[in-house]
Automatic annotation (TrEMBL), chain A:
SMART domains: Transket_pyr (SM00861). SUPFAM superfamilies: Thiamin diphosphate-binding fold (THDP-binding), TK C-terminal domain-like. The keyword Oxidoreductase applies. Keywords: Oxidoreductase, Thiamine pyrophosphate. This is Acetoin:2,6-dichlorophenolindophenol oxidoreductase subunit beta. One of its GO terms (molecular function) is oxidoreductase activity. The lineage of its organism: Archaea, Methanobacteriati, Methanobacteriota, Stenosarchaea group, Halobacteria. It comes from Halalkaliarchaeum desulfuricum. Signal peptide: none annotated.
Amino acid sequence: MSTELETAGETETMTVREALREAMREELRRDEDVFVMGEDVGTFGGVFQVTGDLVEEFGEERIRDTPISEAGFVGAGVGAAATGSRPVVEVMFSDFLGVSMEQITNQMAKMRYMFGGKTEMPVTIRTTEGGGQRAASQHSGTVHTWFAHFPGIKAVAPGTPAAAKGLLKSAIRSNDPVMVFENKVIYEQEGEVPTDPDFTIPLGEASVEREGEDVTVVATQRLVGETLELAEDMADEADLEVIDPRSLYPLDTETIAESVRKTGRLVVADESPLSYGTHAEVVARIVEEEFFSLDAPIQRVGVADTHIPFSPDLEDEVIPTGDDVREAVDQVI
Amino acid sequence: MPPIDMGTEEGRIEALRRMYRIRAFEDAAGDLFADGELPGFVHLYKGEEAVGVGAAAALEPDDYITSTHRGHGHCIAKGLDTEKMMAELYGKANGYCNGKGGSMHIADVEAGMLGANGIVGAGPPLATGAALTAHRNDDDRVALAFFGDGAVAQGQVHEAVNLAATWGLPAIFLVENNQYGEGTPMEKQHNVENLSETAEAYNIPGFTIDGMDVTAVEEAVTEARKRALAGDGPTFIEADTYRYEGHFEGDHQPYRDEEEIEAWREKDPIDQFKQRLIDRGELTEDEFESIREEIDAEIDAAIESAQQADPPEPHEAYEDMFAEPAPEIAQFAELPRADGGDRR
């Protein structure tokens, strides 16, 4: 269990979806400058029902349905943030972020720097990632690498309900642009979540979800839960230490490095394409800092540079699971 | 800078001064670029002064604007300081953006100037967002987007206008139709005669006005501002104007001839308005001469100051990325320089 939960006081069992909604509800109550906008976030409750009933408490001025126009409303979020609002912008599927890429990369990410630090950019963009719903490749992508790579953007990807709540609250409170990548397959996943409205998780802090001696597995999003299950299944063969980096940029290199110093073995599991990606960044940092702590070559678990296919047989082939993590662990021990 | 109230003689003189300040700043910037003094690209606004100043005269100091590649005119119209602007053109530490923005990105968010912009069509969504803040705060502010005729072909401009219209936001969309999108004439980029016709699609008012006449611009934007504050939503204004210089300094301009440029120069916004003030007995040639001398001296001083100003320190390249810095970048500010010197 992560340290936040040990020190956060009372907790309640909730799903990732509920945790995200509670994070927004609490921040909407706390700060009048916060509002939510996106396609179908109001009465419809969000296509994955994450915004749910928020419109009933906060009304249509603060939970705003937008036209289907990502460049327009993401850009409006950027302009609103530059003028003192704190927008939470929902982009229904991360695959659609490409439609608003200009406003994200050239405006949101660059304004503060280009203006010599003389503006803040307190915008949060929430979006959904991940395959497994037989939705084919335009509704199943995992694209956080694009944004974690791009200077000027902070990117988080929670793997548990507590992380979902704590990170989204930090994102909303941050004066920097933060993109929150939610894996849509784990919206129903349950866990203990602190009820204190001031509970947040700092951006840039990883969580050791399970302590172990033999192999460090850095896992993200859905693969956090699957790796924790795997760790129990494999307890007789290898003692896995499971780390959820939670924040992809900034990335908590030290927590991972410390673990590798102990275990000497590293597997990185993330549902994004393998080439030039999120895995590579974790691996590069560990090789730079902990090369001589490594007792075996590092293994990566991800999508083998394909798009996500439609047919269930094909999709199951490409989406990484706990079984793939097991194979990688077998390689390093 | 004092506000511009076109209903008073002082205001009209101030409008003329501000148009001339833009012209003088840009004449200087063009010369400095040609002399190899200024790094990067320079896109001049000369010829379009009436649009920026007419719009600024109709706005209150708290209102927001977004700008374009040709931002110098909008900055000066909004009242920004030419010394800090010139320092930015030189890439100096005391420039508006501490040398990180340059000519194409001058901004002063405090003053409501949300940035010149290197991306055609990127300003209108930002203005829609600023108008959304104004609407949510109900603080009697409006947001005006300056954009060019070329930008009207961009999808994000349509999305921004549609969003502002649908939500009834206090936004004003002001197209500066300077007849060319980079090197291609307006009629090769659009299938309408007047860009203001597009307003029909959003069910908002659309007007085409004489963008060489500062009074016409001021009147149109004043009406649009009233509408915006009354909760009646955005207005789409097309100001017909002309870019005297190329798309960028150094553009060899095979797409037009001197005759066309001369024909537009006949309608020069500064000459026209100056003559009108003289005809009304509000200004004499001598008084205009002293305005010229005063502003020319201001620009000369801005250049001298910028030339002498300190460049940014190398470590500043790693600053200003975030309100709460990421360790990934912060470490570079602390590393020793490649030449063995100390970054700090």
